[in-house]
Amino acid sequence: MTRESATAYVVSALEAKGTATRDDFDVAGLVAAFRDIAGGWDFRSMEQETFWRIASTHLRL
């Protein structure tokens, strides 16, 4: 995966339930945090609980 495909994956996951949009999150910060944790751009193996725990720390208020 690339940064662009990783970003698209994150945006898709954030918007999948229809309750939030990319504008509700600091997507760039979220992608950077995921990259640090995953050690690369492929976030698909990340557990959903971990994904949403990290995403919740990047909400825009």
% residues in beta strands = under 5%
Uncertain regions spanning at least 5 consecutive residues: none
Q: Whole-number average pLDDT? A: 94
| Tally of helical runs | 3
The computed structural class is: mainly alpha
Radius of gyration computed on alpha carbons: 10 Å
Helix percent reads: 55-70%
The coarse silhouette is globular
Count of individual beta strands = 0
Outline:
With 61 residues, the chain is an all-alpha fold. It has helices spanning 3-15, 27-38, 48-56. The longest helix is centred in the N-terminal third of the chain and has 13 residues, at 3-15.
Which terms would index this structure?
mainly alpha
Q: How does this structure look, described?
A:
The protein has three helices and no strands. The chain is globular, with a radius of gyration of 10 Å. By secondary structure, the protein is an all-alpha fold. Helix 1 packs across helix 2 (27-38).
